[in-house]
Amino acid sequence: MANNPVTSISTIYGVALVTVDNLPNDMSVISNVFSKIAHEQINIDMISQAPPYKGKSSISFSLPAQDIAKIIGILNSFKNKIPNLRIEIDSDNTKITVFGEAMKNIPGVAAQLFTLLAVNDIEVKLICTSEVEISYLIYEKDIDKAISAIKKEFNL
Prior knowledge:
The protein has 156 residues and is α+β, with helices and mostly antiparallel strands.
């Protein structure tokens, strides 16, 4: 590709994925959840909210795996007011981020990366994007395969 859309890759190991389901679609409740997390000095990274359905939201986010015990305590504290709150935690993940200034002007980079991950049988758990980067949360066991495939595809 003459103007390579991906110019670098970075990884962060030891990442946990937390999904909070049946959360009331009320910004004051959601704000309270994230404020309590911040108060405990837990650094949240990737955040994804599914569209609200019947007044309920589902929010997923990533954080350092070392903070799992703290996050469980914080989220469980909301179960008194939200008895149907469901919390799922998935550890042993790695965040891989591909970056390239040219991405904002080249359509199809995400499609190319999705295809590359699919062909290599790499499951993606969470995705966040900006104009110039795409971050994927994947199983730690797949990181070497993912990096190798991306480097080969984009001549890095």
